[in-house]
């Protein structure tokens, strides 16, 4: 697939899914990011396992061009990269991930009692 087509695919995936994870199935940081998202209440994020597709290396190149991040996972919420596994875990621990997910309409707002 041409580089421009891969860039279009990546941009389309990011814009059409409120939570998008670019991952590799055997990567421990990718597993951590997916586990943290699940723990935070994201039932089924859209995940693209780059080691399962022919254009995986090109997708990773396109992500580097878009975000400056050349590693996986690369986690997007509402079209914005929040980083990888470690960053996702830190955002969860601080409560910021839940705020981002609530703003994205993934989590329901907690009612103040």
TrEMBL record:
Annotated Pfam families: Glutaredoxin
GO biological process: cellular response to oxidative stress
Positions of the Glutaredoxin domain: 19-82
Keyword Transport included in the entry's annotation: yes
Domain of life: Eukaryota
Function: Has a glutathione-disulfide oxidoreductase activity in the presence of NADPH and glutathione reductase. Reduces low molecular weight disulfides and proteins.
Name by which UniProt lists this protein: GLRX2 protein
Origin species: Branchiostoma lanceolatum
The organism's taxonomic lineage, starting at the top: Eukaryota, Metazoa, Chordata, Cephalochordata, Leptocardii
Gene that this polypeptide is encoded by: GLRX2
């Amino acid at each position: 697939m041409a580089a421009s087509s891969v860039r279009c695919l990546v941009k389309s995936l990011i814009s059409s899914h409120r939570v998008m994870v670019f991952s590799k199935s055997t990567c421990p940081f990718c597993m951590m990011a997916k586990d943290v998202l699940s723990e935070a209440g994201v039932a089924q994020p859209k995940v693209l396992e780059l080691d399962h597709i022919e254009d995986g290396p090109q997708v990773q190149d396109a992500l580097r061009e878009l975000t400056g991040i050349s590693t996986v996972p690369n986690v997007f919420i509402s079209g914005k990269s929040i980083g990888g596994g470690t960053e996702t875990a830190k955002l969860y621990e601080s409560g910021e991930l839940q705020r981002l997910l609530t703003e994205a309409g993934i989590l329901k707002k907690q009612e103040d009692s």
